[in-house]
Amino acid sequence: MNQSVNGCVVDETTGEPLTSPDVRLYRIGVAGETCTVLNEHGCFSFSDLLEGEYSLAFYDQNFVPRYERLTLAQGRIMPSLRIALRPGGLLSGRILDDKQQPPERCWFTLIQAGERRGEPGYISDSGDHKVSDDGTFCSPPLSPARYFLRFAGILRKPATVSQTNRVTLLCNSASSIFCIPMLRTSLTRRASTLNSARRSRVCNYRFHLQSGIPFAAK
Fold this sequence. Notes:
By secondary structure, the protein is an all-beta fold. It has two domains: 83 residues, Immunoglobulin-like; 118 residues, no CATH class. Helix content is 0%, strand content 55%. It has no helices and 16 strands. The C terminus is likely disordered.
């Protein structure tokens, strides 16, 4: 007998139904996905599903992604789900060199700090995100946590190996704008195949995003 999965999605803060999130269902170990849209009440339904392990994912540009692991088995009826999505914080800004020029190419990654097996460290990352040609960037929605922000890219102008340039990073979170004074990093070679006149850069920064509290540089 085939199974079904249904439920409703709400805002964790207000309890109001949401209609904008993208809902996707993945069967574990099987390629492909099944997508659906929420109705006017924020409800969804997947029907005619085979038994097995599934991952149910919810994505929205204003909310932290959420994932639910489900097991569908014969003779077991899956109860209706109530999915509460948490509003996410966004880290945005612009990265420039000391000549006020954006890098030629640049990517950034957000790595969440936490504990793994009782030891402090980094537990997850957001993947690589490309910085725009004008140097502006914006993170995916973030949950309250401590993060390690890493930029890696190639400067637009040549520089000597021994030179240390300055990078100005303007961050915008919770409608507050902060200027982090001149992060300094030494220039290093990215790969031997690069033009010898160019150098790559990795720029790291730690910050703490708290719910309801404007972001502040530390």
